[in-house]
Hints:
The protein is mainly β. Helix content is 0%, strand content 50%.
Amino acid sequence: VTTANTGGGFIKSISEFTVGASTSIYTVNSDNKVYSYNNASNIWGSSLKTLTNPNDETIVFRDSTASYMIFARGESGYTYTADASTFTDMSVSVSATRNVEYFTIWHGQLWGIDNEF
């Protein structure tokens, strides 16, 4: 499928995410914004969120109560959404390091991993 450019530059990460009965494709582009693809109209929508310092790592994690799309932001923390319209920033603070460069799922748990030793 060929689509028009989102206007946000090149794609840094891309994920499929389901909200309710609707599944869409979401990207984080080089302008650090999250975009959603509208399959019915074959266009990319306007920006849903501007992320601070996103890297190339995005994951979808499903637990027993909800699904989450989570964006790694390195030394800035991470951002997550359960509905693709409300985004929560979990930023680094004095009491919480939250450095996340990579994600993995192991034994049913989501792991946010930094790259520090």
